[in-house]
């Protein structure tokens, strides 16, 4: 089984920075079920790591992630699953974003190229995001007859507010440039093309120089206050996703995507 994720610990000042690299080497970095599992395991591997206070998550040089892998055999098998089996399989995504969101370490995403769908869901589960100036974000789920899930809607809402969240999610074909993402508050820093990782490491070094216990407790306090009602508001998004996946519009959306044509939705 291929390793899509590598972890390098002991980086930066006092060795308190770790780098997690997600790179499938294919230029698009799609999130197959196996990639979701490996990224979840990577986040969980820091649970008892007192020596690391900052984790930088980076993708490939051409792409952070193209989102869920619609062509992966395990992923495509969802089409034939009964509802119970499908619900269990759909937990892979929220399990991933929850693992990264709940980490005690400060997390920073370095985004180059493009960050799409599930890639955006992962990025907004982090504490900070740094983006190359020529990179872009896109949330295509609705255009595929699905809904944006993995509990990312409330996370986006906290970052950019209700109208921008609707704009980003509902206008599925809209690319969000790095400058626009910065203007909206979706990313914290824009770097020169190809230098998002360097900028993320510079930010990580500043965080790593702070007292680790105070940093961890502050992160926990902010997260608990900001996200107190998130689970109440978004616990249904998995079931909404499952429901949407049985719709004709979803089948049409995926067929149109794979066939590179414009979909025709009929509200059924």
UniProtKB/TrEMBL annotation:
Pfam families (alphabetical): ECH_1
InterPro entries: ClpP/crotonase-like_dom_sf, Enoyl-CoA_hydra/iso
SUPFAM superfamilies found in the cross-reference section: ClpP/crotonase
GO molecular function, one term: catalytic activity
BP GO annotations: fatty acid beta-oxidation
Top-level taxon: Bacteria
CDD domains, A to Z: crotonase-like
Protein name as catalogued: Enoyl-CoA hydratase/carnithine racemase
Record organism: Bradyrhizobium erythrophlei
């Amino acid at each position: 089984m291929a390793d899509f994720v590598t972890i390098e610990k002991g980086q930066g000042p006092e060795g308190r920075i770790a780098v997690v690299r997600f790179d499938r080497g294919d230029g698009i970095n799609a999130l197959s079920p196996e990639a979701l599992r490996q990224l979840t395991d990577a986040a969980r591997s820091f649970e008892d790591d007192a020596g690391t206070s900052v984790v930088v998550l980076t993708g490939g040089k051409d792409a952070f992630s193209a989102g869920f892998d619609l062509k992966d055999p395990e992923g495509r098998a969802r089409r034939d699953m009964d509802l119970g089996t499908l619900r269990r399989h759909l937990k892979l995504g929220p399990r991933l974003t929850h693992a990264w969101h709940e980490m005690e370490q400060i997390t920073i995403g370095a985004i180059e190229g493009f960050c799409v769908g599930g890639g955006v869901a992962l990025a907004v589960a982090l504490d900070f995001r740094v983006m190359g100036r020529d990179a872009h974000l896109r949330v295509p789920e609705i255009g595929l007859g699905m809904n944006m899930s993995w509990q990312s809607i409330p996370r986006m809402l906290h970052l950019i507010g209700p109208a921008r969240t609707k704009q980003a999610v509902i206008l599925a074909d809209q690319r969000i440039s790095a400058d626009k993402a910065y203007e909206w508050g979706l990313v914290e820093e824009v770097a020169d093309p190809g230098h998002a990782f360097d900028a993320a490491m510079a930010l990580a070094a500043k965080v790593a120089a702070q007292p680790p216990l105070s940093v961890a407790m502050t992160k926990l306090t902010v997260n608990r206050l900001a996200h107190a009602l998130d689970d109440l508001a978004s616990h249904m998004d998995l079931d909404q996703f499952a429901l949407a996946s049985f719709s004709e519009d979803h089948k049409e959306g995926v067929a149109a995507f794979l066939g590179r044509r414009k979909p025709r939705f009929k509200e059924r």
